[in-house]
Amino acid sequence: MSAHAGHVEGLLAEFDRRVERVRATEADWVLTHGELHPGNIMRTPDGLRLIDWDTVRIAPAERDLWMLTGALARMVGEDPVGDDEEILARYPRATGRNLTPAVLDLYPLWWKLADIAVYVGELRRPHGTGEDITASLTYLTGHLESRPD
Questions:
Q1: Which residues contact 34 (CB under 8 A, 6 or more apart)?
Q2: Where does residue 8 rank: exposed (0-12), middle (13-18), buried (19+ CB within 10 A)?
Q3: 131 φ, ψ to 5°?
Q4: What residues have CB less than 8 Å from 135, skipping those under 6 apart?
Q5: How far, rounded to the nearest angstrom, does the alpha carbon of residue 19 sit from its chain's CA centroid?
Q6: pTM summary value
Q7: What are phi and psi of 117, to 5 degrees?
Q8: Strands 47-50, 41-44: pairing kind
Q9: Distance between CA atoms of 32 and 98, rounded to whole angstroms?
């Protein structure tokens, strides 16, 4: 971590800048899930269901919507219809609520910083070897070597 301290400090500073931009918006706050990824989507005979609501919060809708891209559609076995902008444009058409670009920009970086914290916590505790700890190190390294989202 010490070799990447400057990078992490830069990520945190960028996060603070994004938070200030979000505070200046009038984003609508709604009930959000917090982890809209394929591991929390279950296919049932009646359609897709969102499960695992332990991270539910009242927050801007963008907290969930930043993940709703073509990549997510492909992960759950659906064909994406349109590019990411078109996918995100469906929300305002369906709800009458506008999305705020500054808020959409905040959450991918929040996710990256949260992942870094989790992986560092796992790796600092006593641990053995295995697929899970190897994956944590791989993902942490990927985050530390990537640029801000």
A1: 55, 56, 57, 59, 63, 64
A2: middle
A3: -65, -40
A4: none
A5: 15
A6: 0.80
A7: -60, -45
A8: antiparallel
A9: 16
User: 99 and 79 in contact (C-beta within 8 Å)?
Assistant: no
Q: Which of 68, 61, 55, 65 shows the shortest CA–CA distance to 31?
A: 61
Query: Angle at the Cα of 103 (from 114 to 10), degrees rounded to 5?
Result: 50
Q: Which two tokens stand for residue 16?
A: 């603070």
pLDDT in tens, 84-140: 787 788 889 999 988 898 998 899 899 899 999 999 999 999 988 999 999 999 989
Residue 88 sits at the vertex; the CA angle it makes with 82 and 91, to the nearest 5 degrees, is 120
The DSSP-derived string for the chain is -GGGHHHHHHHHHHHHHHHHHHHTS---EEEE-S--SGGGEEEETTEEEE---TT-EEEETHHHHTT-SHHHHHHTT----S-HHHHHHHHHHHHSPPP-HHHHHHHHHHHHHHHHHHHHHHHHS----SHHHHHHHHHHHHHHHSPP-
Q: Of 112, 100, 93, which Cα lies nearest the Cα of 65?
A: 100
Greatest CA separation found in the chain? 51
Which is more confident, 125 or 74?
Answer: 125
